[in-house]
Amino acid sequence: MSGLVCVTGSKGSPGATTLAVALATSVPPDAGRVLLVDADPDGGDIAALLGGGSNPGLVTLAAATRHRFALDEVERHVQPVGDNVALLAAPPGPDQAASTLVNLGPGFAESLAQTRAVADLGRWRPDSPAADLVRAATATVLVVHPTVAGVAHARSVFADLSSRCRRVVVAPRGERPYGPDEVAAAVGAESVVIVPVDRAAVSVLAGGRWARRAPLGRTARALGDQLGLTASTETPTEESAEVAV
Ligand SMILES: Nc1ncnc2c1ncn2[C@@H]1O[C@H](COP(=O)(O)OP(=O)(O)O)[C@@H](O)[C@H]1O
Ligand SMILES: [Mg+2]
Questions:
Q1: From ligand 2's centre to the CA of 125, what distance in Å?
Q2: What local confidence, expressed as pLDDT, does residue 83 receive?
Q3: 121 and 39 in contact (C-beta within 8 Å)?
Q4: How far is 34 from 28, CA to CA, in rounded Å?
Q5: Closest CA to 201 of 189, 213, 186, 184
Q6: Is the CB of 145 under 6 A from ligand 1?
Q7: Residue bearing the CA closest to ligand 1, atom 1
Q8: Which domains does the chain have, with CATH numbers?
Q9: What is the reported pTM?
Q10: Ligand 1 atom 3: the closest Cα is on which residue?
Q11: Which of 66, 120, 205, 233 has the smallest count of CB within 10 Å of its CB?
């Protein structure tokens, strides 16, 4: 199976970038390649986090595909960041990041859905320039800080995302002060997936190394399994083998 998994957050709930990086890097190399897309309209930071620059990336891809989006072009604009992870980096400035996403358009989102991809959408808002990605995604993961403010903001975001994406997974970061059942009830979700508070894993990821065996890495792997991210792809056709990412 292939597909696009989006990760986003709401006001007062940081953790989207960390979870997106953990999800992508938890895909075992033998499952195949995964594209990590920095699609934060407020400006990308994954390249800097993993020790790289923002080019090549979304800006060079948008320039190369300004007339018509072509999936096979993606390959020329990624940066290898691990055994099987390829990063599509975003510019750090919000104006350029947002306009680049708008220029890439729905063709980009639909193409990503044909690959194995994890996209960091930053903080969600109804007019997000990353909305096409949510529409094309297999699932969107909403990171929630399990506090009064975090849960209050997350409720409307969950409802909005649920009207656009076929599957929305609520992911509280930790279990305090509110536990999983309380968060699910307050947000309006049937269930939630707890993302562990794991500072050690965060610093490992920030150093450009992988945290597959840390609690965060293990949770990301289980979530990736649940969302079809780690399943190996069907026998590729000649055409899709060329463009597979
Ligand atoms: N699972 C986690 N466990 C512990 N700390 C975390 C976790 N996720 C994020 N953080 C902390 O929150 C900060 C912001 O996280 P980040 O993923 O960059 O948020 P966002 O992309 O939503 O702005 C990180 O630098 C880290 O210190
Ligand atoms: Mg971020």
A1: 14
A2: 85
A3: yes
A4: 10
A5: 213
A6: no
A7: 197
A8: 3-234 (3.40.50.300)
A9: 0.94
A10: 197
A11: 66
Cβ–ligand 1 distance for 202 under 6 Å, the answer yes
Average pLDDT, the chain: 93
> By alpha-carbon position, which residue is closest to atom 11 of ligand 1?
15
18 in ligand 1 pocket by Cβ < 6 Å? yes
Q: Given CA atoms 21, 78, 57, 5 in this order, what sign does their dihedral have?
A: negative
CA 104 to centroid of ligand 1, rounded, Å: 27
Provide the pLDDT for residue 82.
84
- What is the whole-number distance in angstroms between the Cα of residue 236 and the centre of ligand 2? 33
**β-bridge partners, 36:** 87, 118
Supply the pLDDT for residue 2. 76
pLDDT at 70 over 70: yes
Give me the phi and psi of 53, to 5 degrees please. Answer: -110, 180
